Amino acid sequence: MKKLLTSPSKMALPEIESGIYQNILKQATDISLNLMAVKVTNHPEDFLGWCFELLDVAKRRINFDLLEDTQLPTVKKLQDLLQNAISYLQLKSLRVAPWPVLMMFIEGNKEALALDEQLALLKHIDALREQKLADMIVEDRLVFTGKYAATHDTSAYPFDCEWFAATKSAKGFHQVLADVPFSFDEALTHIPLEGDVTEAHYQAFIVAYLQAFNGIDDTPTLAPATRLLAMRRPDVFTPVMASKLDTLCMALGVARLSNRDFGRYWDDIVQTIHAMPWFRQSLPANELETTLTRYKALLPCWFYYVDEDTPEQSNYFKALNKPKRTSSGRATSGTKSVRRGKESATVLVDRALDNPDLPAYLQDKRDSIIAEVEKGRSVNETIQLLRTIFG
């Protein structure tokens, strides 16, 4: 373990990495006796590999039974520092990595990234993009803007809509979205759905976006705006998260960006990413890569740290694995049904009934299905129940 802890001092690290190493070492020192009890045989010669190895020790191989309660926050801080370091180093690689290297990384980590689920979200967004937010049902509006709700039926929404910069904590943003969604529509009209997007387009969007918050007792922030932009044009705009903004800026080699700095986002984030070799010279070699070129500006989102536990943090995964209903139709373990609006229930049912493989008698039961879905039952559950009864 001592050899592992000291090996980065021999790696000739750049100044930023050296600072990261020193911060990590400080936390490790506070639990050094516990770490020394872990046998280490793998000694990576690069800093990224070193971070992964020490993180594995801090998460899985250290004996937590021997830790004092007062040491647990130190272990958590060590884990967080290592995860942030991995995110920084992986994002930094985007500065020079060619397209094939990006594709190799994404395909090699597709399970940890929950890639299929994230692509299902983007496919759903594709179908919404030409609609106005004000015309969408509530569930679709939240999908577009990045906030999961209990009314997101897993059969109709087989994904967590909070991938790509969740907005659930942006209370002012969601107040505007609920009260005057057309104000965000007005902002989005300045961003063309096809062709080049210029700085003038972006600036016009920002003016309208900021105006939407007039009369709202909350300061507009950058992160929710970038979610709107990224879903409107995922080939142009990269969404940012307030909690990861410092890591992203450091990795891109730009000065720290405030979550209220709308001006610098275009130059320091959008233009910096557009200038990278993989972005300018993408050469898709298969169907997946061709798909990913449509969402090219979202690719940096997949270079933050993930592990095998990440997919289980998805709201979709949690919803799929919540306690099942009993035969009486009630949910077990204290869960309860969540009522949907009539409009939402109607849209969800009509989407399901559009399947030509469903028997004709289900079309005659449309109103009954809508009534059950409105009460909170899932669309698939209701259809399966009717097929059991009448099939």
From TrEMBL:
Span list, region Disordered: 322-343
Domain of life of the native organism: Bacteria
UniProt-recorded name of the protein: Orphan protein
Organism for this UniProt entry: Pseudoalteromonas xiamenensis
